[in-house]
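Exercise 3.2. Students should predict the tertiary structure of the chain below and write it as structure tokens, then compare their answer with the key that follows.

Predict this chain's 3D structure.
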Amino acid sequence: MLELKVRPDHIHLVVSIAPKYAISSIMGYLKGKLAIRLFERYERLGRKYWGRHLWSRGYCVSTVGIDEEKIRKYVQWQEKKEREIEQQQGKLLG
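Answer key:
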């Protein structure tokens, strides 16, 4: 894992994996293990997500043609922008 930003409704994740592994397998593994850990740690999630379906089925992946440093900067920029929006909404509501 090279970069990780967790937001209330999504996660940005930059990983490096060996070419011998299928991306879909890695994503399924990550989503599954993280969901299990979250359900164990936060019991209320199990009640909220009946059937224990935490994640949506999809994900976005780019493997070729995009520079890793650009992706990392985008993830960091996205985090900053979302925080700014949350702060502005807080000022409007508060």
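Discussion points: The chain has one domain: 3-93. The first strand starts at residue 3 and ends at 6.
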